[in-house]
Amino acid sequence: MRKHKPPWLKRFRLAVTGVVMAITMAVAPAAMADLNGVDISGYQSADIPSAISADFVIVKATQGLYWSNNNYATQLANADRTGKETGVYHFANGGNATAEADTFVNAVAGRVGRSILALDWEQCLAYGRYGCATANPNWGNSAWIQTWVTRVHDRTQVWPIVYVQRSAVWQVNTWVRQRCMLWVAQYANSQPTGYQPSPWNGGASGEGMTQYASTGYINGRGPLDLNRFYGDRTAWKKIACGERAGCSTGTVTTAPQVNKPAEQTPTDLNVLADKVIHGDYGNGQERINRLGGNYNAVMAIVNSKLGGGSSTQTTVTRTPSRTYVVRSGDTVSAIAERTGLKPASAWRVPSGNINRIYVGQTITYYGSVSATAAPSTTYYGSTHVVSAGESLWKIYGSGWYAAAQRNGLRPPYTIYPGQRLR
């Protein structure tokens, strides 16, 4: 995603435009759940989002502390007008991470809740004729990425996705990967191309989206960065919405909101307790961090509701046909264990495959009324046999990382056809 293309490279790409148009490289997005789209910057024409076939368009909003895209508003308006999903991204200069996050959030306030938020993390900030002219001073510093995404989430209640080249995925630490979807760049070659249904190495790092070309031509327009998102429009909207209320269908939210501490009232504490039982607040240290000063009071209510006191397991009664909204890191088997709604096979999911769920989806339990709840998460469930072209993200959605840990997989999280995953 080289956003400051050197002039000589632009001239070279213009020279191949005629050839590309002649051989009709543009390919319409495939009629399947996965989405095809592009990402663009300020130097590209404002009409591109309305002139090409795409499921989504991701627009550069800011870079560092002072640069902003003059075409930003028009590019997004053209994407909206033609029914495309949208994303907005910040190109990191590697300065003060908190200040850069604030610059981005201030600029994209009107898109929070309706467009995916993204960080573009690259080694080179600007290119010259002979390569990189200005380098990112914090390249290799995972803490910078974590600080930036945390600040964005604190202000918007949305976890941004993180763009990085495949060879540098290691810079996105485990803490960030458990919360933020990866958007990975790797190109098979520099040949002109249209949309590809199975990009080279797509999903190999467990990413939710792969950028596989910077030499794409769609409907005669290009060169363009081409991407494949391993999910449908609903999954896209859920990532854009994050933990916000009232935006699950893409409703515009006009300004970012800062998370407020929960009120210390019995009603609110009971609501929090119900959410803990439903798994909304995770386990262990994550639950402690998220409940803050309410932790002890809420857990006392949870134990009372479950009738478990300090015991490790409690038998509870559930109502059939319960629903649950999928969160980052979830798997159906983990949800079943955490909520006590077993077996995992009694859950119904939109894809029809309990091993394929996405953040924000509502899944439904149709099992018996008696179940056993455990305070910690243990993973059980059926196995999945890997097919050609599948990745951990494609199989498990946002629960890919939990699946990797469960199966003893390590970076680059390579899986093979015929392999059995549990």
Describe the model.
The structure is a single chain. This protein has 422 residues and is α/β, with parallel strands linked by helices. The protein has a domain at 7-241: TIM Barrel, CATH 3.20.20. It is 29% helix and 21% strand. It has 13 helices and 18 strands. The strands form five sheets. Strands 1-2-4-5-8-9-10-11 form an eight-stranded mixed beta barrel, surrounded by five helices. Strands 13-15-14 form a three-stranded antiparallel beta sheet, with no helix packed on it. A two-stranded antiparallel sheet has the order 6-7. α4 (97-107) runs parallel beside α5 and α8 crosses α10 (295-306). The radius of gyration is 22 Å and the shape is globular. Mean pLDDT is 78; it is low at 4-32, 249-267, 308-320 and 369-382.
| Number of DSSP E strands | 18
Report the end-to-end length measured between terminal Cα atoms.
35 Å
Mean pLDDT: 78
The helix tally amounts to 13
Q: What can be said about the biggest beta sheet? A: 8 strands, mixed, barrel
Content of β-strand: 15-25%
Helix/strand structural class: alpha/beta
Shape: globular
Under CATH, the topology of the domain at 7-241 can be stated as TIM Barrel
Nearest-angstrom radius of gyration?
22 Å
CATH architectural designation of the domain at 7-241:
Alpha-Beta Barrel
CATH superfamily assignment of the domain at 7-241?
Answer: Glycosidases
**Strands in their spatial order, largest beta sheet:** 1-2-4-5-8-9-10-11
Q: What is the CATH class designation of the domain at 7-241?
A: Alpha Beta
Helix content: 25-40%
Low-confidence stretches: 4-32, 249-267, 308-320, 369-382
Keywords: Glycosidase, Hydrolase, Signal
Protein name: Glycosyl hydrolase family 25
Domain LysM: 322-365
GO molecular function: lysozyme activity
